[in-house]
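Note to self: user wants both folds in one dump. Writing first protein now.
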Amino acid sequence: MVKITFNMQTENDIGQETAQIWQDLLASISQGVCAFDAEGCISVFNDCLPEMLDLPREFLASCPSWRELYDCQMQRGDFAGAPHPLDHSHQMDDDQAEIADHVLRLKHLGRTLQVQTRRRSGGGMVQVYVDVSDYVQAEAGRKRANQMLFATQAIAELGGWETDLELDQVTWTDGVYRIFETTPQAFTPTPVTVRPLFTAEALAILDASLQPSEQLNASHEFEVEMLTLKGRRIWVHSRGTTSWVDGRAVKRTSIVQDITRRKQTELALRDSEARWKLALESVGDGLWDLQVQTGEQYLSPNLLRMYGYEDGELKPSLAELDALVHAEDMAQLQLDRQAHFDGSTPTLSSEHRVLCKDGSWKWVHSRGMVISRDAQGQPLRMIGIHSDITERKTADELVWQQAHFDALTGLPNRRLMRERLVQEMKKCRRNHFKLALLFIDLDHFKEVNDTLGHDRGDDLLVEAARRILRCLREVDTVARMGGDEFTVIITALSDESSLQSILPKLLNTLNAPFQLGLDQVFVSASVGVTVYPTDTQEVEDLLKNADQALYVAKAAGRNRFSFFTAALQEAAMQRAQLMHDLRAALSAQEFCVVYQPIVNLATGRIQKAEALVRWQHPQRGMISPADFIPVAESSGLIVEIGEWIFAQAAAQVAIWRGSLHPEFQVSVNKSPLQFENPNPAHTPWIEQLRTLGLPGESIVVEITEGLLLSNSGGVVEQLLKLRDEGINVSLDDFGTGYSSLSYLQKFDIDFIKIDQSFVRDLTSGSTDLVLCQAIIAMAHALGMKVIAEGVETIEQRDLLTAAGCDFAQGYLYSRPVHAAAFEAMVFGSEQALDLAV
């Protein structure tokens, strides 16, 4: 039962009947009620009030004044930031102050109270507290919904349009006014005033939708072009319902949306797509347009022509075109396509072969992009092109072929050989096999190439490649490394013993004569062999090992094979160290020039000498020319060394022409590399001689027989220039090479030096003597003089003198000596000859 609490003094003043009335009245209402007396203090309140205000009953029963009550609520924030209700009347007493209706927001309870205040005629006031929380929340929700609706209509450019055809009324929401660029104040929509907003086509669609038919449509949806109040053309999408009574349309409610931008985008897309198709068709690409879900595929005329088909000969489906794809390419095409469907790639890109109508295969590059997906992200439509890349693929194949195969022999080249070597090593490691790597070098190929020409040399290389291939299995690899060098990979060997039959077979087949047109030539082969994994497990080391073994085979006389050994490794390291030291030797002045006398056999006098180089190594002592000259040749250092030797010899002959004999000559060896790779920074020899005041005849240039066979224009020019400058030319080691008499005449050779191999075993009646006599007779007949090398005995000297040899050189007379010792020897020889006379 609701209880009303009164002040004691007030209770004394009011009768029992009045109190009962208050009790009954206040107990019957759900609002909080309190009364203030004339002094502004609470005199009575019902039980609802303490609960609604969330204030202790004791506080209210203590008869607080207005200000005390409001101060308490103010401190608690119940006025939601509004000013204190008594602030406007602070100059009046609280009992005289006027209190306006106001709102309390009890945030901690989530409650909103409406406070209404009324003055009592006898003084004081009554306040009623009404809980309006639900109403406030509902109103706030309504406002939020209206705001959201307003914003949504503005963003989506849509609005509501209702037409009451019986009352001739049209109702627009704010969104429709915005769409038609007007306001409710500026325009009143009616069935008559809105008709000018429709184009003729739109009116026809609208009127037709309102006409009765056998089946009355309760809903409608159409897109029409309309005009705004500013005269701008727009596109509107209308969708809604129509109410019909007795076959007549009486009311239409629609949602209308401005779709102008969408229509413009669609138009632009159609124009763009048309231009895109036109552009691609004009450059020969074929277009396709795929409906992914159905598999229907548009194929442009260009695409059909690309494969030799006419319109209508291929079904417009994905399956039909896929059926023409090469079987080897189909799996990758499907993977590429699915990856794009799944969104893993931004575009489809696939290169594959397509079968043409005439049975040929054409390489195409298919590119495409999904341009629409459904709500779940599944592809709906994809468009793309086919570009004919057959020529590019053919060119790529040619480039690959040229990059991996030798153009002359068709064999794999160095690059492909290396790739196969790596692959075969992996196979052998996996299957516990061995493999052999062979380096093959054709002996004397250069002479054949130089004498018969490069065309015949190429024929020899092609035939040599065929012969090597015939000696091997299909699983083995033969590669041409360049020039006359071949590499062989013999794989899947259980052990090295099987090589003992293969290697002699290779040597024998390459030893057999080669028929090159009308010419029959003979070459041989040197072979270096290394075995994996016996010798090493690294690719680079295998290549080095085979090269070192080949070096030994050639040095041992050629026409043989040599296996790699640890000793070869040591020798290779020594050669590498020697080359390293050789590079610093010239600047470190470790070289010196010694001179060996060339004696006139008729007079016994020394008027010539050969300049020879010696190397005094700071750690290893004197190094033989036989050890370092080949290294200098292979590294190219011989060019710089040869220039230094000439400068030393030229300076020395200038001295000896003054002290020994005015026509003294010094012979200087000139390497083929100096002829073939001259350094333009070097001063020509004839100019160096002129600087010293010497004629060309003061120097004799010694060359090898092989140089005469060179087809290089630069070499021929240099040899002829030596002759023109008066510098004598001596042909060294004659009889060991492939010289032709025509070459001897062509280059105007001055001296022939008989190789010491013919002199070493020279005795009376020997074959060597017959050969020496023939060489001497031939040379004299051609106007050349002869120098015999390696003369070590008096018998050899006498036999050569009797044969008519002009000069002799060898240990019989002297070893190579330094310039001072040479001068002393010459002076001593002259004195001895003078005494003999």
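First done. Writing the second protein, which came from a different request thread.
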Amino acid sequence: MSTYRLHTLFHPSSVALVGASPRPHSVGRTILRNLRSAGFGGRIDLVNPRYPSIDGLATVPRLEDLPAAPDLVVIATPPHAVRDIVAASAAKGAAACIIVTAGLGRGPGSIAAAVEAAARPHGLRLVGPNCLGVISTAAKLNASFAAGMPLPGDLALLSQSGAVASGLIEWASRRAVGFSAVVSLGDSLDVDFGDLLDFFAMDRGTRAVLLYIESIKDARKFMSAARAAARAKPIVAIKAGRHAQGAKAALTHTGALAGSDAVYDAALRRAGLLRVFDLDDLFAATETLARIGPFRGRRLALLTNGGGIGVLAVDRLIDLGGTVAAISDETMRRLDAVLPPTWSRANPVDIIGDADANRYVAALDALLGDPENDAVMVFNVPTGLGSPKEAARAVIDTVERHRQPGLRQKPVFAVWVGAAPETEQAFESARLPHFQNEGDAVRGFMQLVRYGEAQENLMETPPSLPQDFVPDVAAARRIVAEALKAGETWLGPLAVNGVLQAYEIPVAPVYLARTPEEAGERAQSILDGGAPVAVKVLSPDIVHKSEVGGVRLNVTSAAAARDAAADILARARARRPDARITGVTVQPMIVKPKARELIAGLADDPTFGPVLVFGRGGTAVEVINDKALELPPLDLHLARQLIARTRVARILKPYRDVPAADVDAVALVLVKLAQLAADIPEIRELDMNPILADKDGVICVDARMMVAPVPPTPGRAGHPRFAIRPYPSEWERHLTMRDGRPVFVRPVRPEDEPLFRAFLAHISAEDLRLRFFAPVKELSHAFIARLTQLDYARAMAFVAVDQASGEMLGVVRLHADANYEQGEYAVLVRSDLKGRGLGWQLMELMISYAQAMGLKTVEGQVLRENTGMLRMCRELGFTIRPDPHDSEMRLVTLALDRPRAGGASA
């Protein structure tokens, strides 16, 4: 249900506490104390059949006995009573319940299932169970059993752990950090991270959102909400359980490399979130982002009056993956002209221990103008030769002088060792990130680097199918379907090769030999071509062949191949008597002396679905553990980024007499693997190891593939197991308006913001009012970003573009609820193009898309005076009724499970 009724949850006019108690230190007593001491201005009702009053407030025995419906019900009772209380809350007309109670169980037949069933038909929102509660400082609401009320502020804290939330409140209060809201999600029976991210992304009182994550239930819903929220404001996350042994039972090298935490890391990065690893970083990163915001690049220039601290900073920078910036020739000349001859003439720029404020200004001016760096970090170590306070003031003034309205400023970080309080306050007033030591400063810089890269990735919308790539999907699906029909889990080498060849992935040929004699014959045909052969055991039950002595390499004669096959079969039967052994495979040895061994493949994550894995290949991949993960879909840009995050990327470059490997060919294989995962979700694991890469391209020498049936998922046709939906190019259309004008209609892209600005300029003020229900005073970036930056999962928008001029002519938008049951639409056509049938065609396309998603209804709100839209809705088959909450509104609803009435175009 996403944000439905969440505003009432955080801004209720009345609260009922069921389970209020006079017992000291009880949960009911603590929540009552917090509600009253926070200064909540609304009505507080108490429900407890044992006491006529508590703390001077009258009680009622049952919720049904209250004279009026409360907006919010807080439940702190034994588990057996919760279901009936939730049912009574729904019947009474409450908007939300906070279920503090633990022990409701999980799954069919549990109290939790009964609670959910009682709430859902009435739209009653549930927080919890097993949670600390909810705090909203703007509403002076503390509906929790936290130790106290946090300071008011502009950070929203969303935590799956009540203990962590309570601890963070106390931790933040000691550091004068405030919150707009604190939510303990508990077991997330209804309200979850996705709902809350949707809500706080649009909350004007929230500048940034902090997440404490233990696990994600609905990956697509989370990724959809997180990607949308991260486009609006900083989202900083801590993920607990980093060292859980999630890969112990993995059956392939790829699966072993794709540990649970590594997948979460890839998902959070792809969602545009900044991941941190401790509480200090959680708040520090949030404050730094508020001062600087994302920027591109990781080249850091360091300016210092002490060489030692500069060297320590360089060490830390390299450890964390940053780059020590070069100094351009022009900047070197500028620095030579203003610095003493003993300066370092390198980065770090050591301006010597006697540096005064003027020297800091001269050096910083030069570095801020140098295109070879992306940010500057300025250090001051106190000496008796210069004033740290004056140096700080000089740095602040220099930064202010370089700031230009409307232009992005190169980031500057200050590290003042042992800074006096007034110096720190000066940096605070100037909104300049400042630190006490080099380690924290470099870590803060790299956090912003990672955040900037994640924000850049948010703008990537990989297509459903890469251009100029036409795989034989039918052939690959046929191979997988035959294996599943035969009850197979692991495809044989011949089948694996067939799937990879269908996707134009270069792979070494492989031949089946059922007997040693056949192996000799197969080997001879290959040897005649001049290449030695490899002989390997073939069994659906033996995944790692080398572990049973099932591999022979560099076999150079038919007789040797025959003997090798006989020995392999004997060893395999002795070591794995339970295994089904088909025979052996014979394939040519791929001899590439200057090739690098790589691994690439697909792993199946229980939360996020298919995950791409890339790294250093060979038999010791788990020991070397050089890998990077990414969620599909991928384009070539994302694939190159994936490669660059590994250590093996360095040796793909040229060195000594070894030419550079064809990185583009490696990236293309990764894109094809992502497409394979999209087209055939039955593929659960794919292990291509080794892949040999050199200047001539790539070839896969060995591959394994595991398959399993995929149950249907409502609303996820096409890519049912992807956490991120690809750009749906299959929904592009060519239409013709009534006046004959050709129109290209396609899903919206993030880069469409200029199109929208020009489009909205052609919309009259009256039409904007009819569409947005209020005068639109400002077309800000944030306003238009909400229209253009979608995830194609729950939200979709189609733009109509004139094929000749490229001008945008109209747009229709659909936003589905979290359960993919109903969607809300909106449509807008240029004011000068009304009556030409474009609005009708856009509505028809939206309805078709809603049907493909499996939605049951489409609905919208239309102003009563918007007679043109109401007429079109009626002709399209919508029912129209008054909005019970607003007499000026009409609610239009289209049921998609019954035939629609036809009508004339509008």
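Dump finished. Worth passing along: The first helix runs from residue 6 to 10.
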